[in-house]
DNA sequence: GTACGACCTCAACTTAAGTTGAGGTCAAGC
DNA sequence: GCTTGACCTCAACTTAAGTTGAGGTCGTAC
């Protein structure tokens, strides 16, 4: 096992499919060198990078957003504590608003159970959408912001 | 303004595009009669139905899931408090687990800020994915369950 | 010397939730 | 009697995040 990793090795260690790694590379999320026989050779730091991608995806970020955040990370060096701190603080804030949004939706849902009040003007649930706009830019929900384009 | 509503009227009152209403109809989420000139004529109850669809989408449910839940609702009658109660309780539970998941993710993210511990075996964040499986079926995250197919 | 496994590229397919556009009908207003 | 607006159908396009498959190259193992 050399210093550099093959796609197969990265796939195995991260649980991400080879095809997905190729895809991430096309999208600029990760980088590789090539061996003499044109095989991808990844620095070991790619493992953490892919790990970070996975975490961000679970948090609901799109690959495009992740790519932006990753600009702030070193390309080939292993991610340090400070690097990670900058990025994770940002993501935590996004998670926070997402959680706040879903919580508010749930509370209204709970309050409205059985009340039958779904009238367009009066029900807080119905008007929840208005509040989305006030939370500012970015994806508040993983799905459902499309209609605001 | 007759008892029945045209697509245009429904679109205006619900804020949902005409093309989306057509789409919902193809997917079986809503139903319409036709006028003599083949225009769609919706019962007034469609407004609440569409409202419910919007709420569910904000909660992160897919149209397929919403369609299933809507099976339990009366087709053409206005949705009663009891009808709505059955459905919303179910959705609240789904929202609850989604919130729990994101909260756990955020807390781990917060705990890990700056720790640089992203090692594959030790970091709780890295292994968050394992826990997804334990929460049972259904979409735990709006995105990100795909890799479990 | 050939079969095998891991890798390569590139194009096409997948799903969700719609949107967009082409081509056509119909009733009302001027 | 023609234009306009609202509606109709159907097909094709869009984005995200990949997957699948075809066809080809290496290096190693038997």
Following the backbone from N to C, one meets helices and strands of chain A in this order, namely HHEEHHHH
- How much of the sequence lies in strands of chain A comes to under 5%
What's the multimeric state?
A: homodimer
Mean pLDDT of chain A, as a whole number? 77
- Count of individual helical segments of chain A: 6
- Name the chain pair whose interface involves the most residues: A-B, 52 and 52 residues
Ends apart, CA distance between termini of chain A: 49 Å
Number of strands of chain A: 2
Strand order of the largest sheet of chain A: 1-2
Structural class of chain A: mainly alpha
In the predicted model, the low-confidence regions of chain A spanning at least 5 consecutive residues are: 129-149
The helix content of chain A, as a percent range, equals 40-55%
Largest sheet of chain A: 2 strands, antiparallel
Shape of chain A: elongated
Compute the CA-based radius of gyration of chain A: 20 Å
Annotation keywords:
homodimer; 149 residues; mainly alpha; two-stranded antiparallel ribbon; 6 helices; 2 strands; disordered C terminus; DNA-binding
């Amino acid at each position: 096992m050399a210093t550099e990793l093959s796609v197969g090795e990265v796939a195995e260690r991260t649980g991400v499919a080879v095809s997905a790694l190729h895809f991430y590379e096309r999208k600029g999320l990760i980088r590789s060198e090539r061996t003499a026989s044109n095989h991808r050779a990844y620095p070991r730091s790619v493992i953490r990078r892919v790990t970070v991608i996975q975490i961000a995806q679970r948090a609901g970020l799109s690959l495009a957003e992740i790519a932006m955040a990753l600009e702030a990370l070193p390309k080939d060096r292993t991610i340090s504590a400070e690097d990670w701190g900058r990025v994770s603080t940002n993501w935590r804030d996004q998670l926070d608003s997402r959680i706040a949004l879903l919580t508010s939706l749930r509370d209204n849902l709970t309050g409205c159970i059985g009340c039958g009040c779904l009238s367009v003007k009066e029900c807080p649930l119905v008007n929840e959408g208005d509040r989305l706009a006030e939370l500012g830019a970015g994806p508040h929900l993983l799905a459902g912001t499309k209609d605001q384009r």
